[in-house]
Design brief:
By secondary structure, this protein is of the alpha+beta class. It has a single domain (about 25-95), classed as Alpha-Beta Plaits. Helix content is about 45%, strand content about 30%. The protein has a four-stranded antiparallel beta sheet with strand order 2-3-1-4. A hairpin with a 4-residue loop joins strand 2 (about 55-60) and strand 3. It is elongated, with a radius of gyration of 18 Å. The model has no long low-confidence stretch (mean pLDDT about 80).
């Protein structure tokens, strides 16, 4: 009986965590003006690596875009915009993308 209970509890926990993770994730794409070299990419990478609630950062110098995987609605769009500005660049367009899963 105890093994059955533990098994059901473990399955419930996996289901709850899976649902919670899919509900709370979002992708934010930022078009950036002024990103011209590898040092620019490194500067932005370091800036976003320090921010909480960001699980993944992809930066394309060629496309001049940053793609962030964030948790729920944190950080807010204004915080993302401020981080780009503080790094010395101009956020041209910020888009919250539909869930790609």
């Amino acid at each position: 009986m105890k093994k059955l209970f533990n098994s059901i509890l473990a399955m419930s926990l996996v289901i709850v965590l899976g649902v919670q993770q899919s509900v709370q994730a979002r992708t934010v794409e930022v078009e950036v003006y002024g990103m011209t070299c590898a040092f620019c990419v490194d500067s932005l990478q370091r800036k976003f690596d320090k921010m909480q609630s960001i699980s993944n950062v992809e930066i394309s110098q060629k496309q001049k875009k940053i793609r962030l995987q964030t948790e729920d609605n944190q950080p807010c769009i204004e915080s993302i915009k401020k981080a780009v500005l503080d790094a010395g660049f101009t956020p041209v367009k910020i888009t919250v993308l539909a869930d790609e899963k």
